[in-house]
Each structure stands twice: as structure tokens, then as C-alpha cells.
Amino acid sequence: MDEKRDTTAPDQADAMQRISDTMTQQRLMMRRRIIGRIAIANVAPALEITHLDVLDVVHRAGENDRATIGSVADGMRIDPSRASRIVAELVSQNVLERRVCQNDARRSILVITPKGRALLNEVHAVKRRLLESVTENWSADDLDTFSKLYQRFVDGLEDYARDHAGEAAEIAPKARTAS
């Protein structure tokens, strides 16, 4: 593995600041949710952006009876009652279907319908077109290197978030009482 860097060294500190600034820029751009809005307009105009988030969580949970209201709530970091309301909207729009779990009849599992699959496919197509446009002048090596480094970076963020989730929960109540 790489040796530990001195992130306080001027060149390293500058690199860290550029990454931080770029993360902020990306967060602000992602807030607009352009990809999702285009996909919804093309496939299911009655849906909202939040519905795509639920669909994505169900998709990532896979086909092995793992997609439930609880997994949606966990994946979106929302309370189960809110997850249940959003899922009910998607069921009424024929994007998701509730089924009885074959291993435990007390559990309901969530399954993506053909309409939901079409919406996911459209999201992926819009995203791919956007990425192809943004990277059209990149070399194959640059694209490959970026994809690997970006995946490593996002994996690191997820690991950090999981390992420090308790800290955020402790900070939030303190921040509310301080104001």
C-alpha cells in the first residue's frame, strides 16, 4: 500500500483543497438532479425524483428477497413510515410491486415491474449519454484511471460514513440545541 502522505505539505494541502472544492461543486450540481428529471420526463412524468431513489435502492438490493420497506428506509436514511408512503406511491404507479416473501410469509418484498425496469433503463441511458459527452475528449487510459480512482474514492466515503454514523447522530441534536 502507499506510504502515509503528509497532507499538510503545501502541494498535498492544495490537492486536498481542490478535492474539497470539487466535491462542493459536484454536490451543488447533483442537487439539480438533471439525469433523473430527464429520465422521468421520458418514461414516467407522474413520478418524482424521490421515487428514483427508492427504485435505485430496490434495484441495488437485488432479486434475493432483500428489498423491503426496511431496506429502503436504511438505504435512503429515512424513517420506515416515510419509506412506506413512497413505496405505496410507486406501487400505485405500477413501478414497484409488493409480494409475499417465499421464505417468510410475514414479510413483504419489493419487486421492480416492467415499467420500473424501463425507468431504470432510461436513467442509465441518460446517465451514459451525459458521461460520454463529458468525457468524449478523454483518452481511454484517462477514463480507465478515473473510473478506478473514483470508485475507490466513493468506497472510502461509504466506509467512512458507515464507521462514523454515530458521530453524526450525536452532533445533530447538539447543533439544534445550540441554535
UniProtKB/TrEMBL annotation:
Residues 16-155 form the HTH marR-type domain. One of its GO terms (molecular function) is DNA-binding transcription factor activity. SUPFAM superfamilies: Winged helix' DNA-binding domain. One of its GO terms (biological process) is response to stress. InterPro entries: HTH_MarR-typ, MarR/SlyA-like, WH-like_DNA-bd_sf, WH_DNA-bd_sf. This is Homoprotocatechuate degradation operon regulator, HpaR. It comes from Martelella mediterranea DSM 17316.
